[in-house]
Design a protein that fits this description.
The chain is built from twelve helices and 26 strands.
């Protein structure tokens, strides 16, 4: 009742091998609110997120967090500038991930324990194959430490807890970049919160709630890094295109006392800036109008790199840029294969006759494996139709996941000529090399030729499988990049073994790297 708006505390749970929906609901149903301690003053709404169980809040787990927040905002009067994100263990890893990838969404972030990168957590010295190594840059929070400049972070670890290393790694990395992250250490404590530390932990977040997240007008400086256009925004600044994907792209933007916005960039090909931040902007030494740029008809102004210079786009140019006719990588259209499953998707199964039985059997097994694993690890039934049933509305609104070959799947037959492969009955040609389709298969993600604003995926679900989900959350990273060739071989017990022969990611123009 009334006009009061409430702070929201988003809490991410830790890993639990026997957790399911019923257990989660039971654990939180009719749960008495603490009568003592730092949570006893119930002057906020708390949201405990299921996050599709134990996936470290990646992919559908990440989508689940933001959908849950949206639903709570619809039901209750939530103060959008006072949202706290915190969690412990896997929830700590999730807080690091969502905190530094979305630094403009929170007034305070509190990761307890968890992990922040693959190599340190796994104590691995030998590098992964290049297509997997570069893919780590999508999720490893350690690569995004600079973004802690834009959001207050208070992290915690027990003195005797191995996962304290996540906190210390982030604190040291931040310090090297002149960014502060507050660290609390529970004395003589293993993998849990020390009571006194928890009290201080919550007090820090309460103080940040009192201050609230700054408005765009109040945020006079942004220091931002990303490796992927999936995570491309901080408040009034949006990175629209990268020069080289999966490589650090940095932006330092400051509104000076004279009211001019000064921006320095690295590895950035296009930017959008909210026009009300300043009258003029200087990007890498190039001065342009901002407040009145582009005909003053759009809330954001687009700037595109042109060699060593930057061009400002007018209204019509901005509209054309947004349409992306040249098919550049953009936000939610940047890969890798696993990205297709963060938004609505639809599996399309073949009804025709395949070119060969072995590939057909592998493709069916691949779909069956994806359906089973998505049901188990992401708690959802994969939506599926036959190729003959696909509608224009589905093409418009969903990523299409096609299984089979151009002979068996009518939808694949329509798009194959526009994909960067050559596929016939007797040959599969990828990146200038020919493979036998009776023993080899390609898996790829690409803008859908039938609707370039959505993806098409060929013969792949998530590229990580049961072994990775059963193991540590640090193993949950993309395995095949944007495109891969796999050799498959049937096994007597059923199913197939797969050996990756070649894999990579497309460049910023969806071309194979040279």
């Amino acid at each position: 009742k009334g006009a009061k708006r409430w702070p929201l505390y988003v809490v991410l749970h830790g890993r639990g091998g026997d957790r399911n929906e019923i257990r989660f609901l039971e654990d939180h149903s009719d749960k008495p609110w603490p009568k003592e301690g730092p949570l006893s003053v119930a002057d906020f709404v708390q949201l405990d997120v299921f996050g599709r169980i134990d996936n470290s809040y990646r992919w559908a787990g990440e989508t689940d967090v933001f959908e849950a927040i949206t639903d709570v905002k619809r039901r209750y009067r939530i103060d959008d500038r006072r949202i706290v994100l915190w969690g412990f263990s896997m929830g700590g890893g999730g807080s690091w991930h969502l905190g530094v990838h979305h630094p403009d969404q929170w007034c305070s972030v509190g990761p307890g324990a968890g992990f922040v990168d693959y190599y340190n957590y796994q104590n691995r010295k030998e590098p992964l194959p290049p297509h997997q190594h570069t893919g780590l840059h999508i999720y490893d929070a350690l690569d995004y430490t600079l973004n802690a400049f834009n959001v207050p972070i208070c992290t915690y670890g027990g003195e005797l807890d191995k996962q304290l290393a996540a906190s210390t790694l982030m604190v040291e990395s931040a310090k090297d970049q002149d960014v502060e992250i507050k660290l609390l250490i529970g004395p003589n404590t293993e993998h849990k919160f020390h009571p006194d530390s928890f009290k201080e932990f919550m007090a820090v977040h309460r103080a940040n709630v009192e201050r609230g997240r700054p408005t765009s007008a109040q945020r006079k400086e942004i220091r931002f890094v990303t490796y992927t256009l999936k995570y491309n925004r901080c408040d009034w600044l949006t990175v629209e295109e990268l020069i080289k994907p999966l490589t650090a792209a940095k932006v330092h933007a400051t509104v000076a006392k004279d009211g001019v916005l000064h921006i320095r960039t690295e590895n950035v090909a296009a930017l959008q800036i909210a026009r009300d931040m300043a009258d003029r902007v200087i990007i890498d030494g190039n001065e342009h109008p901002l407040a009145n740029a582009g005909g003053n008809l759009l809330p954001g102004v687009d700037y595109v790199r042109n060699g060593r210079k930057w061009d400002v786009l007018d209204y019509n140019q901005s509209r054309a840029f947004a349409a992306n006719p040249e098919l550049h990588k953009r936000h939610n259209l940047q890969g890798p294969i696993d990205d297709a499953f963060m938004e609505p998707f639809l599996c399309v199964l073949p009804t025709g006759t395949a070119w060969n039985d072995s590939h057909s059997a592998w493709a069916k097994w691949t779909y069956d494996r994806f359906a089973r694993e998505f049901d188990k690890w992401f708690r959802g039934r994969v939506p599926t139709i036959k190729d003959s049933e696909l509608t224009d509305e589905q093409i418009e609104g969903q990523n299409l996941i096609l299984f089979g070959d151009p002979s068996s799947n009518a939808v694949l037959a329509k798009v194959i000529k526009d994909l960067p492969i050559t596929w016939t009955k007797d040959s599969l040609e990828v990146a200038g090399k020919s493979y036998d389709p009776k023993t080899h298969a390609v898996s790829l993600i690409f803008p859908n030729p039938l609707n370039p604003n959505r993806y098409v995926v060929i013969n792949s679900g998530h590229t990580l499988h049961d072994a990775e989900f059963i193991g540590t959350n640090a193993l949950l990273f993309p395995r095949l990049g944007d495109i891969a060739v796999q050799q498959f071989e049937p096994v007597k017990a059923g199913g197939f073994t797969e050996t990756t022969q070649w894999a990579t990611s497309f460049d910023s123009h969806w071309k194979l790297p040279k």
